[in-house]
Amino acid sequence: MLEDFARALGFLTVLPLPCSPRDESGSFGRSFGWFPAVGLLLGALLGGGALAAGAVLPPPVSAALVVALWVLLTGGLHLDGLMDTCDGLFAAKSPRERLEIMSDTHPGAFGVLGAVCVLLVKYGALLSLLRTDALLLLAGLLFAPVLGRWTMAAAAILLPYARHGESLGGRFRRGAGRAQLALASGWMLAVFAALAPVQGVRTVAALAAGLTLAGALVVLALRRLSGLTGDVYGGLGELAEAGALAAFVAGCCR
Fold first, then answer.
1. Does residue 149 surpass a pLDDT of 70?
2. How far is CA 235 from CA 25, 97, 127, 179, in A?
3. Residues 156, 228: contact at Cβ < 8 Å?
């Protein structure tokens, strides 16, 4: 159990661990159940950083630092996946050519635009949250990473994979099944239930917004790739986070 959590933590963050998340044990899929737990830890770190920065710095600077910390803690892994996904899905090519584009390490115009849009949404939402009460700020920063990582786990377990042969995303799906989906869903629902009594409407709105954006990307990927890839998983997480964070400030800030 702890080994599965450590694999998830090592894969999804840059936090140093004694074990490697990229070994060839074939048990990577078991860590999917712990993805939202990693999101909760990430959210706690971001929340602490936001409170510390907000205590000594103006909101615009604090928001920028939190976004930077968000990217640094994940090693830019999910953001890179979003960029590759945008480059591939919005290219006027065949599914095979789109997959080749997504394998290219050089970002294209669509990828850069996608990353800029997501980062701007996160920055704007954080800027607004920093100007409200600390409880709302913490709720948003705790829930968004949890939902983002749940969407990644659920998509990897439930939806078809587009690539044939060996790939990072394909290897990581091995061993994943209903038990991992149940565990991941339990983590996500527990955080949702904990936040709902204090931020009920906004938590529901955040869940709906995050799932709507992630669902739109799933539909697009299934139509244009006939499946998902590791890059798409990262894109799902980024969109779910951005949507959830934006929903937390809807109607409460100017």
1. yes
2. 26, 19, 23, 24
3. yes
Q: pTM for the whole thing?
A: 0.92
Q: Is 151 helix (H, G, I), strand (E, B) or coil?
A: helix
Higher pLDDT, 159 or 163: 159
* Close Cβ partners of 41 (under 8 Å, ≥ 6 residues apart): 9
∠ CA 134-129-149, nearest 5°, is 95
Query: Any idea of the CA torsion for 219, 147, 15, 5, to the nearest 10 degrees?
Result: -100
d(CA 46, CA 138): 9
Give 18-45 as a 3 state SS string.
CCCCCCCCCCHHHHHHHHHHHHHHHHHH
Q: 96: part of which helix (H) or strand (E)?
A: helix 95-103
Q: Residue 58 has what DSSP assignment? A: -
Contacts of 227 (CB under 8 A, 6+ apart): 159, 160, 161, 162, 163, 221
**Phi then psi dihedrals of residue 25, to 5 deg:** -75, -15
Rounded to a whole number, what is the largest CA-CA distance in the chain?
52
Q: Which pLDDT score, from 0 to 100, does residue 254 have?
A: 53
Q: Residue-wise over 190-212: b if at least 16 C-beta within 10 A, else e?
A: ebbeebbeebeebbebbbebbbe
Residue 250: CB partners within 8 Å, gap ≥ 6?
Answer: 202, 205
Under the banding of pLDDT at 50, 70 and 90, the label for residue 199 is: confident
Q: pLDDT tens for residues 59-82?
A: 999 999 999 999 999 999 999 999
Rounded-to-10 torsion of CA 185, 79, 20, 155: 30
pLDDT of 228 higher than 90: yes
